[in-house]
């Protein structure tokens, strides 16, 4: 049995942005205080030392708030800093290799874009959750494919693992996503670039609790 139950893979899921710079920890802290249950460290820069320092600090911070910490794209970095797992995209390492490195207890999430077929394959290969998006136009990835909300419903009904929705989600448009079956709302801009990240996180949390 896995150490971390899939029941923990629910709620508000914050993805960091390298543009936060020196505000990375303070914004993440605010989101956690507002109710975020998962944090994903995402930095596409080639500065390995910076990424390790930031990921290690965020891992300790996130665990200190009783939340789960994942690393985007990089199973080796996740293993090095003691993360709870990794999130993989289309061009990242295979699920099987990430599992060998991180172990049976690790969380492995997979981006499935707008494809239920990709999600089926990911679950078959051992993914702990699948992510679909962009469900709305995304300011972070404006050219991202769009995933219809009924895809979340179908995935929730069929796959047997938690379903994550990402892309352009705000407190104003989140309820249809939750109603469609999303277990996790993955949010970047609406929180990390907000004037009050804690207040926006609380607004998301209220919607999730109501639902």
Helix percent reads 40-55%
How are helices and strands ordered from N to C? EHEHEHEHEHEHEHEHH
Tell the overall outline.
globular
**Unreliable segments of 5+ consecutive residues:** none
CATH superfamily label:
Aldolase class I
- Main structural class: alpha/beta
Mind telling me the CATH class? Alpha Beta
Taking Cα atoms only, what radius of gyration do you get, to the nearest Å?
Answer: 16 Å
Number of E strands: 8
Query: What is the makeup of the main sheet?
Result: 8 strands, parallel, barrel
Q: Which strand order does the major sheet show? A: 1-2-3-4-5-6-7-8
Number of helices: 9
What does this structure look like?
The protein has a single domain (about 10-210), classed as Aldolase class I (TIM Barrel), CATH 3.20.20. Helix content is about 40%, strand content about 20%. The chain has 9 helices and 8 strands. An 8-stranded parallel barrel has the order 1-2-3-4-5-6-7-8, surrounded by 8 helices. Strand 5 (about 105-115), helix 5 (about 115-125) and strand 6 (about 130-135) form a beta-alpha-beta unit. Helix 1 runs parallel beside helix 2, helix 1 (about 25-35) runs parallel beside helix 9 and helix 2 packs across helix 3. The longest helix has 17 residues, at about 50-65. The relative contact order is 0.17.
Q: What's the helix and strand layout?
A:
Elements: E1 11-15, H1 24-33, E2 38-41, H2 48-64, E3 68-72, H3 75-81, E4 85-88, H4 95-102, E5 107-113, H5 116-124, E6 129-133, H6 149-158, E7 163-166, H7 174-180, E8 184-187, H8 189-192, H9 197-210
Parallel strand pairs: 1-2, 1-8, 2-3, 3-4, 4-5, 5-6, 6-7, 7-8
